[in-house]
Write a structure and sequence with these properties.
Rossmann fold, alpha/beta, disordered C terminus, 2 domains, 9 strands
Amino acid sequence: MADVFINYRTGDGDKTAALIDQELSRRFGRDRIFRASKSIAPGDAFPEALSGGLRHCSLLLAVIGPDWVNFRSRLRDPEDWVRKEILTAFDREVPVVPVLDGRKMDRLKKDDLPTELERLADIQSVPFDTHDADTSLKRLGDLVIDMVPGLRDADRAEVPPPAPGSVSNTTGDINGTAVQSRDFTGDVGGTVIKGSNGPVHTGRGDIYQNSRNETGGRHFSGNGMTYFEGDNRGGIHHQYGEPGRREDDDR
């Protein structure tokens, strides 16, 4: 269930709403943030989905774009969903935070709002500077943490996304030095493997016990060494420790 509901007007603030959704979803999880165009699947009933999102949320972020108050007739329409979502949050006593989209955006004024929405002018708003979106998104995410403490355990703010072209890996127990790299130069003690295609194993333990490789060559493995018979693409260099023991294929 979503904890944060993002309210926005299509054509006025929807791009900023998408940015906010992307960042909050990264920090707290996709399912914890509700934005209609993302969270309502094709075929779902629109009114029921919106009502469900509002019913379970703990915070509503109302993205207020430059033309938001110019939709006067729609803001006065009881069937307008932007209006209905905000009023539903008020009725449920869910905190509402106006997010002012753009550095030149002023606080809302009661004279510009329908009577039912005048309360928005009294609520402390948050500026969102589209020219410094990273700072604005960080500040907004931290605010969400303060207002919805239940999201704190899910926060992934300190886990940066992987850089393009980066290499990641997960290993178990390692005794000694482990080096992982795409390209490297210099001396590396132990085992160096370059340009391998397929499984490679060195050191203690077995791999392909009593088996043959694709070219019909045999595999021998044991303490301190592994030997692959047949065509091996790339280079394999091994610094030997104790003498290895050869285990011949029985077949």
